[in-house]
Amino acid sequence: xxxxxxxxxxxxxxxxxxxxxxxxxxxxxxxxxxxxxxxxxxxxxxxxxxxxxxxxxxxxxxxxxxxxxxxxxxxxxxxxxxxxxxxxxxxxxxxxxxxxxxxxxxxxxxxxxxxxxxxxxxxxxxxxxxxxxxxxxxxxxxxxxxxxxxxxxxxxxxxxxxxxxxxxxxxxxxxxxxxxxxxxxxxxxxxxxxxxxxxxxxxxxxxxxxxxxxxxxxx
Length: 219
Hints:
By secondary structure, the chain is mainly alpha-helical. It contains 10 helices and 3 strands; from the N terminus they run H-H-E-H-H-E-E-H-H-H-H-H-H. The protein has a 3-stranded antiparallel β-sheet.
């Protein structure tokens, strides 16, 4: 008897709480729900056509993620982000993503490398065409691909959470960004991955994230 086949036949069904969680998380990530904005659970229940029980479950999960905060008399609001917190985010990201890059270089194969090269071509094409609105999405794709290549879900999830915090910060504190420098720094990372050089990949990632931290968290 195949002991795993029965599980594979069970359809993946998302609960109401899952759907609310994903909807709210996406709205926060995209800036539709901004830091400090109040979450009205009665309104959400009406909008989704469900009771407040799954709404509360989703809100609790988002509080655990650090995306919502609940305070007496203030209710539930989208968590705010300040520059001091962002310095910590970049320190964490530098340490974790350097490890991710090292592991990715050790595991790199031709298919994974082709994905990085495709993203880089798209970045340079967008720069040359002046299509800067595409750069943030391509940048996220690059770092998510790097996290996926490390082979550990926990590291991928940590990177995803850090990238989400950075995206939220950039929405609330917009600024000019030197995307050509970002693309060039990515090229150095890809070159290290191409050579399957873990130490160089980790060094390149530290330099890249350190450069971002100086740009975005300067006093």
